[in-house]
Amino acid sequence: MFGQKKQLKVILGITITILMAAPALAVESLNLEKAVQIALENNKNIQSSKTNLESAKSRIIQARSGFLPRLDFGGTYTWWEKSQTIEMPAGVFGPEPVSMSLDFTSNYVAAFSLVQPLFTSGRIRQGYKIAELGLKSAREDYRNQEQKVIFSVKKSFYDLLLAQSMVEVTQDALSLGQEHARITRIRYDAGEASQFDLLRAEVEVANLNPRLIKTKNGVNLAGLAFKNTLGINLEDEIRIDGRFQAEMFDKSIEQCLKTALENRPEIDLLRYQRDISDRSVKLARANSWPSLSAVVNYQLLSQKLFDHKRWQDTYSGLLVLSVPLFDGFYTRGKVREARTALESVMIGEKQLKDGIELEVRQAYLELIEANQIIMSSQENVKQAQKNVDIAEDQFAQGYVTSLEVMSSELALTTAKTNYIQALHDQVVAIAKIDKAMGTIK
User: CA triplet 47, 52, 55: central angle to 5 degrees?
Assistant: First the structure.
């Protein structure tokens, strides 16, 4: 009996251990490509833009219907209180007046009406072209929102990667400081180092601990921002997969500017809006021009609803010409409104192009700066590491002071920080340029 209880305790303990370990197994590792995919699926602006795209497709169907005939069916039932009596004067049907009673107390009419526009002064065609341009605008808006999300994901991914790298740099600095404090303690115990050197080494270690805490908290903050960008639960545990490495970018500023003016979705979007405004002016003018339609009517009439022999049919065809003469200056106001919208779009187009050029130039300068820092700090890290190794070795032999060792360690930490920051700034600048050119993906 005692053995069975012991076995149950062991099994229960193993089960609890597995359950406690389950969350750790659920931690998701994300690379940049997968992160972008998740953000595009979850982003609310993307979803809203996709809805607008579907609405624009529906407006195409609506506009196309203007070219097609319209068929309507209608029915009426008329009831009168009493029959109608008609008095025929003498001499029509005889020498005496004649009285006739007509039974119209119940009257049924079923009618089909077919209307086909023949000429509308371009109103239907302009409306269809505006709907087509609206669909193109919706596609460019979707592409614009998509590129914004991709850049936001890349930026937050690189920021989180930078925060994690800073933790590694600080941990390396702490390890160096602890090792230096250990050697200083050994030399102090041997009477080869002063108490001042020992206290300085221990204070340096103590000062690095708050810095490590701050860098770790920076990882938590960057992680929250990254999860928010992805549109996932802030309590979800994730781990990113990636490291900084120097990248090559061989396009000139002139190539970047040319590509930006050709590919930016905002420029295409504004161009389509300009075309919409231009066609809206033409559509407003067309409202004051004639239109011609063909109408065919087919009617069934009867005084008895369920007596099919009493139903009679009749046909009619019409050509309907409509010529607007005076609409209270509505068309004039509509034309003026459309012209104003067109002018506003043209002004906005110039502002947009200036803004895009500024965006490209700023990102390009940031890239040049980052490349220069990478070139200088990459070799500087190697030299600083050699200085630390030499200083620690010479300190152990009593040739240099503790202050010189800590100075070399600080120089190494600064060099690493500058290098990693420059790598981060480089990839972010490239992402900015890609976004500014409309080619980010």
Answer: 130
What is the pLDDT averaged over residues 160-177?
Answer: 93
**Cα distance between residue 334 and residue 325, in whole Å:** 16
Query: Strand 291-302 and strand 106-119: pairing?
Result: antiparallel
Nearest to 413 by CA among 79, 107, 166: 166
* pTM, two decimal places: 0.77
pLDDT of residue 75: 86
Q: What is the pLDDT of residue 415?
A: 92
Lowest-pLDDT range of 73-87, 326-340, 425-439:
73-87
Does the pLDDT value for residue 192 go beyond 80? yes
Question: Under CATH, what is the fold of the domain 28-68+120-289+327-437?
Answer: Outer membrane efflux proteins (OEP) (1.20.1600)
At residue 362, what are phi and psi to the nearest 5 degrees? -65, -45
What is 69-88+99-118+291-323's CATH topology?
A: Outer membrane efflux proteins (OEP) (2.20.200)
Q: Residue 291: which region, alpha, beta or left (left: phi > 0; alpha: psi -120 to 50)?
A: beta
CB 170 within 8 A of CB 212: yes
Query: Pairing between strand 106-119 and 238-240?
Result: unpaired
pLDDT given for residue 282 in this prediction:
85
Task: Provide, for the chain, the percentages of residues in helix, strand and coil under a 3-state DSSP scheme, each rounded to the nearest 5.
Answer: 70, 15, 15
Alpha carbon of 271 to those of 98, 122, 133, 352, 357: distances in Å? Answer: 78, 22, 10, 11, 17
pLDDT in tens, 15-49: 444 344 433 334 568 899 999 999 999 988 888 99
Size (the chain), residues: 441
What torsion, rounded to 10 degrees, do the Cα atoms 403, 409, 414, 416 define?
170
Listed in order, the ranges of the chain carrying CATH 2.20.200.10 are 69-88+99-118+291-323
Q: Tokens 């190794």 — which residue? A: 389
- How confident is the prediction for the chain on average, in pLDDT? 85
Using the predicted structure, report yes or no on whether residue 303 has a pLDDT greater than 90: no
Phi, psi of 19 (to 5 degrees): -65, -40
